[in-house]
Design brief:
Helix content is 43%, strand content 22%. By secondary structure, it is an alpha+beta fold. It is elongated, with a radius of gyration of 25 Å. 14% of the residues are buried.
Length: 217
């Protein structure tokens, strides 16, 4: 079983992957081409002999870094296309997740430990550092999440489009696991303190949820 053709992205382009980072690095390192041009213009003038080799070295370094970044982008796009074209739908049980205190494009990078399983897939566990948007964070408490898996290489990715929609809820439901209702107020408060310590809830969510727990005692 594969995902619907409309969900399959376009095949990745090596040029589209390489060009943006290379151009960005050349713009940021514009001093390299400037030195290179100045070195050619000044020729053999005394004291200017360092301009040409320095400019060439900086330009080459920018190109190498840009190509390396572009290659990483291309490989990531290849993996995405391969999984969305031929990957098998499966489920991922979230065993644990912890913040890394790193944000990429203003979204948190989490350290995840997952157990991936499916009807025709031997279960296996993986650990990964994955960016999960703040909007999708409540899904980590909702149980199994849909993923796409290559059974041979065990490459995987979250299939967020197939995840259950996030229903607007009061803050207490958003920050506590589904089993929280069966816990004692002391256990729920301790769990809430742990979420705050891990920076997984805002202070406003913490205060609102703590007030609700105390009101229910």
């Amino acid at each position: 079983m594969t995902v619907a053709p409309r969900d399959v992205p376009r095949p990745p382009s090596l040029l589209r992957s390489m060009l943006p980072p290379v151009l960005f690095l050349l713009v940021c390192g514009i001093v390299g081409p400037i030195f290179w041009v100045m070195g050619l213009a000044t020729g053999d003038e005394p004291g200017a002999g360092w301009l040409l080799p320095t400019g060439i070295a900086i330009t080459v370094l920018d190109l190498v870094i840009g190509v390396l970044i572009g290659r990483g982008r291309y490989r990531s796009a290849q993996k995405l296309h391969r999984l969305r074209s031929n990957g098998r739908p499966a489920r991922a049980q979230v065993l644990s997740f912890d913040p890394t205190n790193v944000r990429i494009n203003d979204q948190p990078l989490l350290k995840l430990r997952l157990r991936i399983h499916g009807a025709d897939l031997a279960p296996f566990e993986v650990e990964s550092r994955t960016v999960v948007s703040d909007f999708r964070m409540p899904l980590l408490y909702a149980g199994d999440l849909p993923v796409l898996v290559d059974p041979e290489s065990q490459e995987w990715e979250f299939d967020w489009d197939a995840a259950d929609p996030i229903t607007p809820v009061v803050p207490s439901a958003a920050v506590l696991p589904p089993a929280a209702a069966a816990k004692t107020p002391a256990e729920r408060l301790a769990e809430l303190d742990d979420l705050l310590a891990k920076d997984l809830v805002t202070r406003d969510e913490y205060d609102a949820t703590r007030a609700r727990i105390l009101d229910g005692i």
